[in-house]
Amino acid sequence: QVQLVESGGGLVQAGGSLRLSCAASGSIYSINVMAWYRRAPGKQRDLVATITRGGITNYADSVKGRFTISRDNAENTMYLQMNNLKPEDTAVYYCRGYLIQLAGHSESDYWGQGTQVTVST
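The structure assignment produced for this chain is given below.
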């Protein structure tokens, strides 16, 4: 059984910062791409940032220059440092991991349960 658990969400004023974490646990052989998504109230879930196992990153235009994605492969953990937060960043943030549970098996993707980020004016 694999679990992805997010933490670090909360309420912050505009211009402030938060750091989200996503910890993967369970039967894991390797984690390939990891990603952060978010769903704002009344909207669809959108991709925020991705990071490969080798550390190559990609960001949505709306967060470039403000958010930084990183990961610790040894700890199976991913992070999202969010700076200069804006009210429009308010959303539930989800992590997603593409991982292999056993050597030689195919890759599957897993989602966390989400963590709420609220940015006040």
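Interim note for the steering committee: The mean pLDDT is 97. The longest strand covers residues 30-39.
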